[in-house]
Structure formats: structure tokens, C-alpha cells
Amino acid sequence: MQPDTTMTPALEVTVLVSIGRHPVTGRARRADQDARGVELARSLADAEVSLLHAGELAEASEPALRGYLGMGFSELSLLEQPEGADVLPALAETLDAAMPQLVITGERAERGEGSGLLPYLLAERLGWPLVSGLAAVESVENGVATLLQALPRGQRRRLKVRLPAIVTVDGAAPAPRQSAYGPARRGTFETIAGPVSRDEAWAEWQVQPARKRPKRLKIVKAASARDRFKAAAAKAEGGGGQVLTDVTPEQGAEAILKLLREEEVLR
Amino acid sequence: MLDILLPILIAAALALAAIGAARRVRLWRQGRPARVDLLKGLAAMPRRYLVDLHHVVARDKVMSNTHVATAGGFVAAAVLMILVHGLGLAEGVLGWLLLLASATMFVGSLFVARRRLNPPARLSRGPWMRLPKSLMAFSLSVFVITLPSVGLLPEGLLAGAGGVILTLLLALLVTWGLAEMLVGMGWGGPMKHAFAGALHLAFHRRPERFSTRRGGEGRSTGLKALNLEDPEAPLGVEKPADFTWNQLLGFDACVQCGRCEAVCPAFAAGQPLNPKKLIQDMVVGLAGGSDAGYAGSPYPDRPVGEHHGSPHGPIVAREGKALVDAETLWSCTTCRACVEECPMMIEHVDAIVDMRRFLTLEHGQTPGKGAEVLDNLIATDNPGGFDPGARMHWAADLELPLMSQRGEADVLLWLGDGAYDMRNQRTLRALIKVLRAAGVDFAVLGDEERDGGDVARRLGDEATFQSLARRNIATLSKYRFDRIITCDPHSFHVLGNEYGELGGDYDVFHHSTFIAELYDAGRLTFRAWKGGRVTYHDPCYLGRYNGEFEAPRNVLKALGIEVAEMQRSGFRSRCCGGGGGAPITDVPGKQRIPDMRMGDVQETGADLVAVGCPQCTAMLEGVVDSDAEVRDIAELVADALVDSTPSSTPGPASTRQPLAEEVA
């Protein structure tokens, strides 16, 4: 199902896919955000898309991985990692060797640590730029991609980024296509060996169902029905924030530090 | 001169017909292999034709008699003609018989001609319009040329100048007749239906649907399972050649009478489906070409001539147009009205689901909410995506006996996914009240129950159907029960007719059947009906799929209700629009199928329509501005119950389980 690569050099895209968890039953499935990432990749013209999963092929997780193959792929690269390993070094090494121009991943895994930090750590290791919350890739020309980033309340921001880059997608990206049984069943797993680094901290952790986190209250000072509607329709976290452009790294760091102090993340 | 010409003409026609037949057979054999008992089928063919097919045709008495005269006359005339004129055996009674046969055929062809004077919209025109003339040409010319053979006319009549012209005219008519009647059989004229139809009856893919000498209704409605074990086995039908050869043969048998079109709810609603056109498109596909030659009603709003296909080309294109548009396939409600009406016993629904299977399993192109519903079925075992642990919440106060605690019961009550639907929960509560009043020893699976897989299967997702079915069968095998009762005809159908192929054989009954039985056994007593006029809507999956037309009516009768029947009821009942995943794929049309059905209800002047299916309830109740109330039979029965009867009429179950008084 790879698009033909005869004319122009194809854009090499790797989508990092993980095993998801259904919110109601907890069954393994395509992770929603990762599947959206795959859908985004499939919508790119002249792209050669490959799927990469770091983990092991277990009976419980195989249908989930085959779910990605069912979106029209003949193979999925399986970077073999035992349960509880830190996949970051292996992923970084594999991507460094394969040198795709674009890496797409979800914001946060649905099971395991799910810290949402992997794309950032990976970008740091590889020294690539990272763009989060992507809604679309508009075009790729001469090694520069024009991206559409999703902001709260349906706003979009157009960004240009030099490739290679890592981008993450969330619920704003287009919904994934249906996974078809036939290609899912036929698809194969191509296993790649990678360095295994044990995650010492993980081994000591205890996993338990998460409690619902308290929501930050919105203080609505509405004078009119229109304001009340706007307040009700707004995302809770979409209120503040500022965009800094053309600042020195020091100024940027300063601003971030200030925010972290305000939010009492740092004391 | 005719003495020399006729044997030559007959021999040439037979030879050409044989060549055409061989070519046609080769077209059918492009299909996949199918396991058919050829000899047994051929032996059974006359009975299938004379009994089962005639039974369907005879619903239209005039047409049936017309066909008996024309076809019977033709077959006799053709055989006798070969003997009399081909082999020159005119002596004795044969010639007279030939006169009689051709005269009968001629009378029949007059009726065919009358029907073609002002044909109803459902009939195809085109070549079919010339058929009565061809029939007359054949019968008349054979009659006339046989007259001298039996001595009714002097042999010398055809001599002389006038004789030559008459001879030429007769020869021309005979040639025309032979060309249409014999050569056309194999070369694709209207008479193809006789050749293909006879073989189709013999090699039908559902031999069990025909009656046998030992009687039996001969009902076969369960879909056939896909082989998912073999990774090489194709998933559904992509190209015409992916059908089995006897399916292709079946398509070719179509006479384009349009009875299917007249009863198709999707066609009436203006959705882009016409069963007759679909079958003709398959014929186009198996022979290759475009649908421009089709001369019947098109798919609503889809002009004829824009689609084309070939035996090894795709039926539905991923993008653009091929032989058939995907919306056509997804418009079907699988109500089987077309199959029930088809005088050629063609299996439209099987073909549609075969093609849907490919779209879902290979393309992943289930339209509308299809993909979401299938994902829910995979992840939560119910189409709504609800928590499987919440399946019994509706019955929190009923303390239903669970199979997991009891291990056995006389009756296993299959709840169906209606357990999540607040409307259907009222039906279920009513049914449980009835079962308890009759002292029935029953139990439910509770949270162990899963969706039966009906919707997944009709949407073409055979893999999910089989996964659900196998897990349900494994659950059911843990417990002992005599029979399954359900108020959902769709569950009834899969449990009763489709699980068997996967290793689950159960005695399944619809709740109306069971209630009728309980009433007959004297375990239920009803108050007299005081409401207004009542009509009854036959659910497709109860009636046409499972042949249960009587029990619901008997229950209503027991309640003291005289059913005001709708014009389309019983085996001709019109679909509510809720089957086959149609509400999920939701192909737009000009009007809604349930609106039309409630129109039928209104025509009877009924204040209330009794139903026996959660889908029908949902669809019919969703009709706005309707005067009639929609109630399930279980609700009507529960409302009419007179208490205290079970103790006075001790049934076998009521002694074992006293009564569920403690929860009432």
C-alpha cells in the first residue's frame, strides 16, 4: 500500500504507534491519538509511511497492533523491547539510523507511564524540532514542512518547520479511518533488535486505577448570555498563555520559569 | 420445400443453441467453486419447478396460468416439433399433439401480449416487449406448418406462386421463432431465463429452501459463514467472478418481472437500490459491459448507462464508479421481501451481504456510523459502546435469576442489546412479569451475555460476528437449559439459524410463541381487551426469516383483540427500516421507511400497532405525528394479566419454582 516512489523522492514518514486501552472495558486497541497520527500520515501526498512500535508482541496486544495494519499497511516494524523497558534509547537509536524526515506520534500513551514526555525526550536526544498538537500537515517543500497546529477553541496556527522533525497529534487531528480485517490479518511484523535499557524506577512502581483528577474551576464573570455561552464553550485551560516570538533563549526560559512559579510547579 | 428446410432449420437452431449454452456455462464457471450435488439437484429440479416455483408464481393467478399455457405449450411443442418436423415422425398422434401444444402456446402468448400492452412500471421493457410477438410467431408458424402434416390441409397448398410466398413467410416466422425461443436461450435473449432458471433451480445454493416430498416448509434464511481459518480464502466478493458459480447462474435466471422492486422498502423510499437492477448489474458484470442496455426502473436518482463492469473488474470502486455504487449495497435492510417474492428463487440478500463483506473486511469502508458501531462491538461487545458491566442495571430491582448462580433452568431468557435501551427495557420488564405470572423457571446470562452479532454480520463484519458468536456459544455451553426465549427477532435469528454452522444448536423461540404456548397450557389468564383498534406489524426477522406469523396473532386473539390487518402483512409485511444495519449506515432517500410503514398502519385506522421486535419498536415509535401507539406484545400481555392463576393451574415449572413473589 505504499505510494509509488518513482517520480519525486518520497517523503519518509515514521509513525510511532502504541497499544491503546479502551476507556470503558480496558481492552487493548489502536490508541486513538496514534491512529490519528497514522491517518495524518496516510493523507500526505507522496509519503512513504512506516509504522514503528517499541514493545513486545503478546497475545493480548497483537490485535491492537494489527488494528494499525488494517489501516492499509503491509508491515509494521517491531522494535523488540521487554515489558518495563525504557524504550527511549532504542527508539532514538532506530530513528537516528533510519533517518525519516517526519516522525508522527500521539501526545500521550493510553497505558503504561503515559507521561506524554516521550516525544520531547526523543526530540531532545535527536536534536530535532518538535511541534505538538498538530491538526494537519499542509505541505512539504524543499525540506520545510508547513504545519497547522491546533490551539484551544478551534484556533489554528500555521507553522513552518525544517525537517527532520517530530510532530505530535491529539484529538484535533482527523479521525482515523476504519481498520479493515483483511489487511490487518495479512500484515506482517518486521522485528528489529534494539538496545534494551531497564527502567529501574518503573520496576518499583505500583499500578492502580487512576482517580479522576479535580477540574480547575472556571470563574465566569459573565454579564450577558453571549459571554456565558462563550465561557461554557471554552476549554478550561484555554484562557491564559502568551505567545513569545523573536526572544532570546534566556528570555524564553525566564518566561517559562515565571509561569512554573505562578502555577506552583516550582516553589 | 419446407420438408427439406425445416429439419435444417431445427438442426441449425439446436446447434446454435448448444453453442450459446456452452458459452453461457463458461461465463458462469468463472465463479468460484461451490459444493453442489449435481445429480441430486437435477433430479429434484422438476419438483422444485412445479411445486416451489409455481407456488410463488401462483400468487398472481392470471400470470401463473399464462405461464403454464405458454411455457408448457412451448416445451411440448419444441420436443414434438423436433420429432415431427426434424425427424419426420408425423404419423399418428404426434402431429395432433403438436397442433394442440402450439395452439395452447398461442393462447398463452395472447395473454402475454395483453400484459405487455400497458405494462406496470416494475416490468422491464426492451427485448422483453418483443417476446409476445416472438411467442406468437413460433406458435402460429408451427401450428400452420403442422396442419398439412396431419392431413388437415392438402400438401399441394404450398405449391405454386402463392405457395412460394406463403412458404417463405412461414419459413421466416419459424426462423424468427426458433431464433428467439431456442437460440436466444444461450445467447442472452429473454428466453435465457428458461435455460438458466432450470439449472439455477437444480444447482441452487440453498437446496434446503425447497420443500420435499415429505413436506416441510423449506425455509433457509441464515447467511453462510465465511471461512476465516484459511488466510488464502477471500473475504467476501470484490469482482463478479468472486461469486460462486451457482450464484452467477442464479443472477442469470432473472426474468426481470420486478416483483422484488415492487416490494423493496429501500426502492419505495427513494434510496438508490432496486433489487432487479442489482441482479441485472451482476449479469452485466459476469458477461462484461455497461448497464446501458437495461430497460427497467433504474436505481432511484441514478441514471442508467454510467456504470460498467467485467467479470474480473471491481464491483464497487474505491473511488469513482464501477458496476454498482456502494450506497446501493448499503441501502438494503435485509428484509428479504425480494427473496420471498422472487419467482426464480434468486438470493438477493446473500449477494448483497457478500459484497458488503468485501467493503468492510478489505476496504474498511462501512459507511455512516458503521465503523463506530463495529469498533464498539469489538471493544465492548455491544453496538452502543456501553459498559458490559452495566448490562443488567435496568433490572436492578427485579432480582433476575442468573445462570452463573443457577447453572440450569428450563428457559434461558436472552435479553439482547435492548437491555441498554430504555424503551426496550419496558418490554423486557413486561416480559418478565408475564414469565413470573406463568411460573416459568427461567434465568438470564446477565453480564455474560454479548451482542448476538446480527448487526456486525449484516454490516459485512464476519470476523466480529464470528468472534461474538463463538464467545456466546462458549458461554451458553456452560449451562443447561431446554430452550432460549427472546423478545428480539434478530437475536432469535442468529441464535437459531446462524450459530449452528459455528457449533451452537439451540431451540430458540420468540416470546410471542412462548406466550401463546403458555396461554394454551392455561398458565395465563387475560382480562378482556378494552382498547381501540389494533393492527400487527410482522417483524421481518420473525416472519419471513423464521416463519412465525401465527403465534403473535394467536396471542392477540387470546387478549380479545381482533387484528385489523394491514394490506402488507404476513409474509408480505413491509420492513420498518431497522434491519441490516440500515439505521447505522443511513443512506439518504426521499422518504423514511418507517414513515411509510406507519402510513400503512394509519390506513387500517388502528389506534395501536402491536410489534414484536425492539428494532421495529424503535423505528416505528420514531415516526413523528403518528396517531397510533406502538406497543410490544409482551407489554399488551403484561397489562392484561389477571393475577393468581398460576397457583390454580399447576404447571411443571411452577412446582419447581414457587413464584417470584418475594420480589414483586
TrEMBL record, chain A:
<keyword id="KW-0813">Transport</keyword>
<protein>
    <submittedName>
        <fullName>Electron transfer flavoprotein beta subunit</fullName>
    </submittedName>
</protein>
<keyword id="KW-0249">Electron transport</keyword>
<dbReference type="Pfam" id="PF01012">
    <property type="entry name" value="ETF"/>
</dbReference>
<dbReference type="InterPro" id="IPR014730">
    <property type="entry name" value="ETF_a/b_N"/>
</dbReference>
<dbReference type="GO" id="GO:0009055">
    <property type="term" value="F:electron transfer activity"/>
</dbReference>
<feature type="domain" description="Electron transfer flavoprotein alpha/beta-subunit N-terminal">
    <location>
        <begin position="16"/>
        <end position="201"/>
    </location>
</feature>
<dbReference type="InterPro" id="IPR014729">
    <property type="entry name" value="Rossmann-like_a/b/a_fold"/>
</dbReference>
<comment type="similarity">
    <text>Belongs to the ETF beta-subunit/FixA family.</text>
</comment>
<dbReference type="InterPro" id="IPR012255">
    <property type="entry name" value="ETF_b"/>
</dbReference>
